[in-house]
Structure formats: C-alpha cells, structure tokens
Automatic annotation (TrEMBL):
Keywords: Signal. This is Beta-lactamase-related domain-containing protein. Residues 1-19 form the signal peptide. SUPFAM superfamilies: beta-lactamase/transpeptidase-like.
Length: 572
C-alpha cells in the first residue's frame, strides 16, 4: 500500500455541534437487548456493587445494529474493564459503517489497564457515511474476561434540504417582526430551485441598533459573564461588491466597533434569486462576532433581499456555533437594513484579489473521500464536537463539514476560526527570522533597547528579542506549569485595550529570577514584548511609517502571499 504523507492536521475547535443521543445501553434494567452474542466464549450480565455490566469471556463477542441514516458526526463512547489479560489479549469495542465488512476501533484496554474492577471510559468519532451502524464488543485472546458498560452513540442530523424555501421566506423578510426559534442554517443557502441573481449589488450595507430578538445561553463561565449587552450587535456600515454570484466585503478581517463586547468580521457571501422572492435577489453573508480584546469567535449568517431599484428587506441573522470555551449561545432575529447603492472604490482590485486567493488554495475534497481507516483516525483525533477538522494529504485538503447546533454552516470555506497561541507564535517566529535575514543580529538586540518601559524597569538590559520569542526572559513569578499565565492578575494585561497598560504590565509585573535563556515560563506578555520590540526595530531601519505585518507580507509575491496568509484560513 502506498504510504501517504500527512502534511497538516487542521485544528479541531471547541464544541459547537448540537449532538443528540441515538443509542444508549447501560444494562441497568437487566436486559441485554439489542445485543446478540456470538463466538465460543460466554456472554451474560453481571452485577457489582449495584452496577450491571455485560461480561464476555475469551472468544466471545456481542453485536448490536442500529439505523442512523440522516445523521452525521457519529461519536461512540463505552466503558470497559478487564481481568486475566495476557500480553496479547484485549477487551475491544469497535464499529462498522458497512455492514461488518470493515471495522474501526472505538476503545480498547490491555493488560496494563485491566485490574478486574475499574471501568475505564473511552470513545471515538466515526467518518460521515450515510448508512447503518454496527457495534461489536470483543473479548480477544487468552483467558480474557471483559466487562462492557454505558455504551452510547450520539450524532448530528443532516440538514433537510427542501426543493423550495421553507424558512426565511420573502413575506417574513419584507414584513419584519421576528422568527420564534433558530432555523436550520440551510435557510441561509440557495434553495434547490434557486437561479442566477436578477439584481446586481454595488454599494453599502448599513445595520444600526441591531439586537437579537431571540437568544439562548448555552453555557457561560461566571468569571467571564458580560451581562445583557452581548445580545446586541455592533453597528455595521460596509461596502460590498458583487462578482458573479459572489458578494465581497470591501473590508476583510476584523472590523473594529464601539460596541462594549463585539467586533465584526464579514466574509465573502453569495447572491442568487428564487422564484418565490418576487423579482428580487437574495444575498447571504457569513459573519462572526469576535469578542473585543480577545479571540472568542461566534459564527453566524446574515441574509436579505434586494432589488434592482435599490430596495432592501429586513436582514435575518442567526448565530449557532462558536469557537469559545467559556461562552456559548444561540442568537437570532430580524434587523433593519439599509442599502446605499453607489460605486465602491477599488472594486476591480478587490475582485482580483479574491480570485487570486481562491486560485492559490489547495484543491479540496470531502473527508469521506479518504480511506475509511484514515477518516476514522482523523475523526477520533478531532473529538466529539469540533467546529471543523481535516488534513492535507498528498497536496489535497480533506475537510469535514462545519457543524453547528442548527445544521451545517453553509459557508465552511470562509468560516472564521481563531488560532489563539498558534498565530502569535508563528507570526513572532517568522517575523524575527525575516528581520534576522534582512538585518543579521536583530535577534540578539535587547528588549530594553527598543521598549522604553522595559528600559526604565529593572532586569531587561541583557534580555534579547530571541529570549522574548523563546519565553526565556528570566522574568517570572512561578515555574509551575501555567501558574503565571493562569494567575488572576493577568486580567491587568488582557483587559486593557491600550498599549500603555499592556506594555507596563509586561515590563514590570514579573521580577527577574534567572539568567535570560535558561528558564522557560509561558507568558503571553513575552510575545507582546517581542512584537513591540520588533516594530520599533523595523521603524529604526525603515522609517516611522514602517509596519511589521505589512513588511512581512512584502516578503511574498502576490499569489504566494495569499496562499501563506489568507488561503490557509479554512485550515486554521
């Protein structure tokens, strides 16, 4: 079999999927149904301290079949205990999506984990195949005795795609009001009877005073509670240009706002027309609300109707997923929108840049196009509720769907995913390497030479930019893992939005305790110091208007730049 090189594993972001339980078997009612025994060993229910489990002896197996059509992102969990396992024996739970022709491991315990008492929990995700599911429990080898318990299967329903529009129809968007509950996000994609747009957009979209009329908090860490303001959206005034069936925002990336909680990110959307829309065009824009001064990102969709005469309907929006550990919510509603037709400066360049970005992207295929064993391994690595995951194999990007609590995200190619520490680490390292290439010795320059706040403090005269990159400045309070980073005092660094407060903390909060380059302690503030110092070093070499990020982009040609910094967005 040809060896495949896996170039990159996409990040699996924290849970968004609205998984529902499809099957559970805990045997507490004293029945083994629907499990069927086979093999030469013994299969029976046993009880220990009031808990009932299924016991299998060596050579025995038990199978259960269940219909799971119309479901995806299946995740199976099981608890297993074992006794009498020799080095070649194991207690195994596995699954098949093809009627038993091939099997994928769910969880297994070996001799090291088998103490005859402890039920150890494990689980795995399965590749998305629309078909049945067979589970098999096996006591494999030697004199093995295995106990299995609390076996559960969960999954996410496939979107019900109607040949005609069922939700967010013309009457609702035109009249306004509110829709009572979240809709499947397929409502923000073209219906099956959609055709080419009969109107063309060029001008500005304006949303003001926007507020969710529907809101449901899924989870929120009390330490990060923000109150009622998170239910409102920032005002938006954004130029958009249509190119074919694509609707391009003139401003990509973060759009700062004055809202206390959120900034906008708006990505390229789509434009089309449907027979039921009364001679208007329908647009859908992917967007995200990103927490101010932080990276928690809540992805949503926006849709509205517009006409050749410049009219516009209300705009419906829905947020149904996020990459945020401490705050998860659904939000939805209808917003008052304004369309200001007019020429957008730089429209041709905007379209050309979009085309170059798309041309620079890797070819993409579904994760299900991989061999089942590879797809199963990636699904298991991603865990039960990722936003999206995948891998680059042989120059092809294999990617899962972007699953939310209310159907698949219809713009998975441009979904916004924060990279957290990945971004700061990669950018800091690449930028310092590039500066060292242009101006040898830059990495050995001192932080104090470029950061006045550190020069005024003690202990920075011999700390280099490379030390800051390595987080070995010698300034720290504790070497215990993450103790400094998790200290509540870090709020004094993270919360302020101004540079002066952040740089004062970075230079003064941690005392000097070790020689630079000798002790690693994780500090986000060290990377902030590095960026500040590199920016000053660049200005000293290229003038006061030099920008570190733009200087780094200039090291790439046009297509290469988009490939390196924009085209990889779905992989992050």
């Amino acid at each position: 079999m040809r060896r495949m090189l896996v170039a990159m594993l996409a990040l699996a972001m924290s849970g968004t999927a609205g998984a529902e339980e499809l099957f559970r078997s805990d045997f507490q009612h004293g029945t083994a149904a629907p499990w069927q025994a086979s093999g030469r060993g013994d299969v029976r229910l046993t009880s220990f301290e009031g808990n009932v489990s299924m016991r299998l002896t060596a050579g025995a197996s038990a199978l259960a079949e269940m219909p799971v059509r119309g479901m995806r992102r299946l995740y199976v969990t099981v608890k297993i205990a074992g006794d009498g396992l020799d080095p070649q024996a194991a207690c195994v739970a596995e699954a098949s999506r093809d009627g038993g022709r091939s099997w994928a491991a769910i969880f297994a315990i070996d001799r090291k984990m088998a103490d005859g008492v402890t039920l150890t929990a494990g689980g795995a995700a399965l590749p998305d195949v629309d078909g049945g599911l067979t589970l098999r429990l096996v006591a494999r080898g030697g004199r093995a005795t295995c106990w299995f318990d609390d076996i559960a299967v969960s999954g996410v329903a496939l979107a019900d795609i109607s040949p005609t529009r069922r939700a967010l129809g013309r009457a609702m968007l035109t009249a306004g009001g509110a829709f009572e509950r979240p809709v499947d996000l397929s409502a923000f994609a073209p219906a099956a009877d959609a055709g080419k747009s009969i109107a063309r957009w060029e001008g500005r979209l304006r949303l003001t005073g926007a507020r969710a009329t529907g809101f449901r908090m899924i989870a929120e860490d009390p330490a990060f509670a923000r109150g009622d303001t998170i239910r409102s959206l920032p005002d938006l005034d954004l130029a958009l240009v249509q190119s074919g069936d694509v609707l391009l925002p003139a401003q990509r990336g973060l759009i700062p706002s004055t809202h206390p909680d959120w900034n906008w990110i708006v990505e390229p959307g789509r434009v089309w027309s449907e027979p039921g829309d009364g001679g208007t065009a329908r647009a859908a824009l992917p967007f995200a609300l990103q927490e101010r001064n932080a990276n928690c990102t809540h992805n949503g969709m926006l849709t509205f109707l517009f006409g050749v005469d410049g009219t516009i309907s209300h705009a419906a929006f829905e947020i149904a997923g996020e990459t945020c550990l401490y705050r998860k919510f659904d939000a939805w509603g209808l917003l008052v929108a304004r369309y200001l037709p007019g020429t957008v400066a730089g429209a041709a360049e905007l379209i050309r840049a979009h085309e170059e970005t798309n041309a620079a992207r890797l070819p993409m295929k579904r994760l299900e196009d991989l061999p089942p064993a590879v797809a199963a391994a990636l699904a298991t690595a991603a865990g039960p509720e990722p936003t999206v995951y995948g891998a680059v194999i042989g120059g092809v990007h294999y990617r899962s769907a972007c699953v939310t609590r209310h159907g698949d995200y219809p713009a998975c190619d441009v979904i916004d995913l924060p990279s957290y520490s990945t971004a700061k680490s990669v950018f800091g390292a690449v930028a310092l390497m590039r500066m060292g290439n242009l101006w040898p010795g830059t990495a050995a320059e001192t932080v104090a030479a470029h950061v006045p706040a550190c020069a005024a403090a003690k202990g920075w005269a011999d700390v280099t930019l490379e030390n800051a990159l390595d987080m070995t400045t010698g300034h720290y309070r504790s070497t215990a893992y993450q103790a400094d980073e998790d200290d509540p005092s870090m709020a004094r660094f993270f919360d302020p939005a101004d540079h002066a407060a952040k740089i004062h903390f970075a230079c003064t909060f941690y005392p000097r305790k070790a020689a630079p380059g000798t002790t690693w302690v994780y500090h986000t503030s060290d990377t902030y110091l590095l960026g500040t110092a590199m920016a000053d070093a660049l200005r000293a070499k290229r003038g006061e208007k030099a920008d570190l990020y733009e200087a780094l982009l200039q090291t790439f040609g046009t297509a290469e730049r988009h490939r390196a910094f924009v085209g990889i967005r779905p992989l992050c």
